[in-house]
Amino acid sequence: MSQVHDSAPLAGAGKNRLRWELAIVLGLSLGRSATYALVNLLNRLTWTTPLGEQTTTIHEPASPRPWWDLLYQLLSIGFSLVPVALALFLLADGRGMWTACRGIGLDGSRVGRDLAWGAGIAAGIGIPGLAFYAAGRAMGITIHVETSGLSQYWWTIPVLVLSAVESGLLEEVIVVAYLSRRLDELALKPWAVYAASAVLRGSYHLYQGFGPFLGNAVMGVVFLWWYRRTGRVAPLVAAHALLDIVSFVGPALIPTGWLG
Fold first, then answer.
1. Can you give the three-state secondary structure of the chain, one letter per residue?
2. Which are the contacts of 62, defined by CB distance < 8 A and separation ≥ 6?
3. What are φ and ψ of residue 229, in 5° steps?
4. Facing residues of 209 across strands?
5. What's the distance, CA 61 to chain centroid?
6. Is 95 exposed, middle or buried (0-12, 13-18, 19+ CB in 10 A)?
7. What is the phi/psi pair of residue 48, to 5°?
8. CA-to-CA dists, residue 7 to 4, 25, 179, angstroms
9. CA 129/CA 122 separation, integer angstroms
10. Is the pLDDT of residue 175 over 80?
11. Half-sphere exposure at residue 167, Cβ-oriented, CA atoms within 13 angstroms
């Protein structure tokens, strides 16, 4: 595996432009999510119910009517991918979106290999992730997470799979590829790039408690190390999507009677 080439640092007006660009992209996407997650956690800490006895649900129904619920779910997934398109557009710098995709290793040129590496990364991250969650629940610093509150319609599992892929693209393209490139151009030291990526990834999981913050921050360091070593974000998107598919779809496949 070869070291991905760092972008050339900028100076003066170029740096100011990049700072504004970063603020806008993150404000429209995961920076916004991190802010809401922090406020949500602070709100929960004021409840009389201890944090470890609280519950949060990731996928909530948007309508009691199935077809309208499906439409709302698909619209939410589609619009959540707009910041990904914006990040790629900005990384392309006028050279075309496909150039940007090739530049971060999201070009589909090694689908089999990317999926294989993604499965391996998912397995390596998934087990420690469960350990972090279990430890956090035992210590009372992690909220009980219901991964899906959707009713079991014919479209429930496909929508959950699409949501998992959307999360993989959104988080890995922006938090790993885009953020890494821009912070390198701002001449941040490597440790600061790792810290920024890890803290951002952990922050938008704060609505689940302190345990997921720590677990996802560690995951952020590992994922960014992989990307900076290989220059390919596709295996990380695949790994993230696989982790979320197991998390989202697994409970939907278990009969309600078994859960009872």
1. CCCCCCCCCCCCHHHHHHHHHHHHHHHHCHHHHHHHHHHHHHHHHCCCCCHHHCEEECCCCCCCCHHHHHHHHHHHHHHHCHHHHHHHHHHHCCCCHHHHHHHCCCCCCCHHHHHHHHHHHHHHHHHHHHHHHHHHHHHCCECEEECCCCCCCCCHHHHHHHHHHHHHHHHHHHHHHHHHHHHHHCCCCHHHHHHHHHHHHHHCCHHHEHHHHHHHHHHHHHHHHHHHHHCCCHHHHHHHHHHHHHHHHHHHHCCHHHHC
2. 68, 69, 72, 73, 76
3. -85, -35
4. 142
5. 21
6. exposed
7. -75, -25
8. 9, 19, 12
9. 10
10. yes
11. 21
Give the pLDDT confidence of 200-248 residue by residue, as tens digits: 999 999 999 999 999 999 999 999 999 999 999 999 999 999 999 999 9
The pLDDT, as a whole number, for residue 1 is 44
Residue 205: both structure tokens together: 């999981």
Check residues 147 and 250 and name the one with the higher pLDDT: 147
What's the pLDDT band for 84 if we cut at 50, 70, 90? very high
Distance between alpha carbon 173 and the CA centroid of its chain, in Å? Answer: 9
Comparing C-alpha atoms, which of 17, 13, 48, 19 is closest to residue 31? 19
Instruction: Provide the pLDDT for residue 149.
Output: 87
